[in-house]
């Protein structure tokens, strides 16, 4: 008989090679792995059955290279009793070596053994979300069967998402136990989250400097509310002149800087992130804007067009990008320039998140799928599996595409789909992606928080994001300033305006403003006011048609907006009743009277008589 030392890679462990692959073919392996979650601790129990398919070889030991630094309470046994595990550690983690109590010799004979340990690296409480992350099977072909059971506390409730996504008809669930087969798992592993929403606090610093000898206007991008997230701005210091929305929905805070002025803007706020996006109905004209070529998205390139011909769905584009590119960790530290879609096709092994995003967008647009870029913060506990690579403050970039059936922008992350070895970041994302800016109209603007630095501040940490316990629901607060004339002249049209400012913490919804009068026409006006971000304002023009020439009456204007009603009186009078007309007429009359008096006043004329 020939002794055979087996080294297998199991779920949650990094791939290790067999000492001799020909020996491995002499055994079949069946796995039953149970992960029992107790809050942040997970007990892992691995039951293995080795079946000898040869009468030449036998297994005397089993070695497992664990990818975790944190394992405790390691125990093992086979059918003849306890096994004393030998544990060693290297840069890849812990290695567990098991020597069996007896040899199993002979064709068809079986050896059963069990290994168990505890680890805190599988289950974590991340803010308001419990996450369970189990890496995938390294080589499916090495296992005859591979069954996995994940048992979570009943208090966790139902998972908000589960990767891989398994239909309710094929998923075997018993109470709070979720059971998976090898075919269901594939090579992607398991990722589960329990909780409905995630909340973060953020503190962002923006360094502004006007190096000109004349005043300038500038702007900074605040984290916006999107169809995945709602942002509350608690404080901005100093206050901006205004906050406006651009075509991509970004919040741009406007500032005026004097010559050579330096200013540091501090923004504090909260964000709540949901898993399921809201609907956002776009016109065909809007969608066409997200099919255009931009720098880094070279859709007119023959190379990109040729690839896109065979990629007719967002999923096909995603899969191509995940397979084609390789993440280059060296580029993060070396701060190499952005390659863009065409550049990374020429250098597929030198990609970071920007290149994954650029290629997805370019191929999508070339295939007729509206797509754009999102830059922001992404929470990660493992920089190898879920890396961040935007240079400033180590942020992240990912794409989103517009789903015409769902009528919504859908975020995906091909970078993490690649670096996690196949975990699904297409069908459902997570609670970890917090958008700072959206780039669709431009591929390199606006700049996200963390990118506003001067030479002096280039090494400062300007992005601080932490978990929050709650997100208080708030409503926009409107301040309305009217500039409507109180007196108008009959026979002439009248113009005015209303300025609506949102002095609250959250963005307003679309509102309808109603203007009603009894005499002035139109007697009813309905004006749509678009979304207004916090500290933003819009000015709406108001127009009334001309009245009959001799109108002399008073009208009441009733203005209703956002549930509040305002009143304004307008006096309508002929031009000859107009105070300026009367004043002017009075001056003219007075001048005529004074002039006539001056002309008709008697005068003494001196003369002399000549004596004869």
Explain what this protein looks like in three dimensions.
By secondary structure, the chain is mainly beta. It has three domains: 2-194, Immunoglobulin-like (Sandwich); 284-440, C8orf32 fold (Roll), CATH 3.10.620.30; 478-575, Immunoglobulins (Immunoglobulin-like, Sandwich), CATH 2.60.40. Helix content is 14%, strand content 40%. It is built from ten helices and 35 strands. The strands form eight sheets. An eight-stranded mixed beta sheet has the order 6-5-9-3-2-12-15-14. A five-stranded mixed beta sheet has the order 29-35-34-31-32, with no helix packed on it. A four-stranded mixed beta sheet has the order 1-4-8-7, with no helix packed on it. Strand 14 (172-174) and strand 15 form a beta hairpin. Helix 4 (302-308) packs across helix 8 (353-366) and helix 5 packs antiparallel against helix 8 (353-366). The longest helix has 22 residues, at 579-600. The chain is elongated. It starts with a strand and ends in a 12-residue tail after the last helix.
